[in-house]
Specification:
Elements (H helix, E strand, L loop, with lengths): L10 E3 L2 E7 L10 E6 L5 E2 L2 E2 L1 H6 L1 E7 L5 E8 H16 L12 E5 L5 E5 L8 E5 L3 E4 L6 H9 L3 H8 L12 H9 L1 E3 L12 E4 L7 E2 L5 E6 L4 E6 L8 E4 L7 H12 L6 H5 L2 H25 L9 H13 L3 H19 L1 H19 L4 H19 L8
Parallel strand pairs: 7-11, 14-17
Antiparallel strand pairs: 1-2, 2-3, 3-6, 4-5, 6-7, 8-9, 9-17, 10-16, 11-13, 12-13, 15-16
Helix pairs in contact: 8-9, 8-10, 9-10, 10-11, 11-12
Bound molecules: zinc ion.
The site of zinc ion has 5 residues, from helix 7.
Pfam family, one: SET
Protein name: SET domain-containing protein
Organism: Rhodofomes roseus
Length: about 400
């Protein structure tokens, strides 16, 4: 079934209710369209419609552009979809941040041990946006396991999108025997929040035709980021990636190698075959586990200090060493977070000049890892403007960023 065959307006068909929303054409002349389909009529109790059941009923929505081909299906409960779709309509009208597809710096090819993977076709610089892509399937954690619902949601995709989705690896888990759920389980990235509303912190699992091809490495060279303002997933290079190198992300952020391997086994039913683990000696593993634990400990301690009247006495030299460990372990979000929290701690202790120095480190790291549109960058900027205003009021010349 193609969404393009549906007529505008509300219509009932086979127990499903469809209503279509046309969104205004965007600058490029392309109009996005979201179609919401409630899978089951909500049940009536004593002749009265049951509102709770209506909101919890399985629901999916398709997204198509001007050609009418449904290139995305969004599945969850009616309540979840009603919460996120008004924001999604707005986000999907915005073009992807990377514009033209042709300049992509990677190819999909056979990896040594992990099936298909992504490979750099030229030098990709640290902080570069490698790819931005809309998900093909966005599924809530509460997606219905009912086979007839999942059949309908999968059938709602256009033939091309469905064929590409079905080409992704399927989970071998017997509980996830449906082709839709099996593919979501091992190819999706946890994505969210879906809206700007802090009360609606709904997280979805996003599965992509290209992004989902990236293999795991315990120290991946790229970072996945969900961009809620455009409803797309992105990979940013965490460091320079030479031509020919495989582009990898970390599927798990567990601190020790043993915990990461256990997580890989539990979710993906496979051993970790990553290059970092293959190359590491037992001594490397011990050192890496220790460094990661220390980075996490300092990050968490700085975080709790924000809400306490006690000011931690950690020196700038120690903080610098922790940042080096974070960089070595590829923990670039922790790196940025530590620099940001250090700046806030040092505002009280050392004053705005030192705080501003650390804030610049944080901003640079956030932009490199998450992109300049990330929410974290806007938070850093608020503090940057505050500190520069304080300094300017004292007659000093400072600008931000
Ligand atoms: Zn590994």
């Amino acid at each position: 079934m193609k969404s393009g065959s549906r007529k505008k307006g509300s219509k009932k068909r086979g127990g499903a209710t469809a209503c279509q929303v046309d969104t205004p054409a965007v600058k490029s002349g392309r109009g996005s369209r979201l179609t919401l389909v409630c899978h089951e009529e909500y049940k009536r109790k004593n002749g009265q419609p049951n509102e709770m059941l209506r909101l919890l009923s399985p629901c999916y929505c398709t997204y198509s552009v001007d050609d009418g081909e449904a290139r995305m299906v969004i599945a969850g409960t009616r309540l979840e979809l009603e919460c996120i779709l008004p924001f999604g309509e707005f986000a999907l009208q915005k073009p992807l941040p990377d514009g033209d597809d042709k300049s992509k710096p990677f190819r999909i090819g056979e990896s040594e041990k992990q099936g298909l993977g992504m490979f750099a076709t030229r030098l990709i610089r640290a902080g570069e946006l490698i790819i931005a892509e809309r998900p093909t399937v966005l599924a809530s954690k509460k997606v219905s396991p009912e086979p007839s619902f999942n059949d309908a949601a999968l059938a709602a995709l256009s033939d091309g999108a469905r064929a590409s989705f079905m080409a992704l690896a399927d989970s071998c888990s017997p509980e996830l025997s449906h082709p839709l759920l099996g593919r979501i389980a091992i190819n999706s990235f946890d994505s969210g929040p879906m809206t700007d509303d802090e009360d609606t912190l709904v997280e979805f699992a996003a599965t992509y035709i290209t992004l989902s091809r990236a293999n795991h490495d315990c120290v991946g060279n790229a970072n996945y980021q969900w961009l809620k303002t455009r409803w797309c997933g992105q990979f940013f290079a965490k460091r320079d990636i030479p031509a020919g190198e495989e582009i990898t992300v970390s599927y798990t952020f567990a601190l020790t190698q043993a915990d990461r391997h256990a997580a890989m086994k539990e979710r993906y039913s496979c051993e970790c075959l990553c290059k970092t683990c293959s190359d590491a000696t037992p001594e490397d593993v011990r050192r890496s586990d220790q460094q990661r634990k220390m980075v996490a400990h300092v990050r968490d301690a700085l975080q709790s200090a924000l809400y306490s009247s006690l000011c931690p006495t950690v020196s700038e030299e120690s903080l610098q060493r922790v940042l080096e460990h974070a960089q070595e372990e590829g923990m670039m979000i922790s790196y940025a977070t530590i620099a940001f929290l250090a700046s806030r701690m040092l505002t009280k202790r050392e004053g705005p000049v030192v705080a501003l120095k650390w804030l610049k480190v944080a901003r640079q790291a956030y932009v490199t890892t998450l992109g300049k549109e990330a929410w974290e960058v806007s938070q850093v900027d608020k503090h940057g403007w505050f500190l520069t205003t304080v300094l300017r009021s004292r007659g000093a010349v400072y600008s931000w960023p």
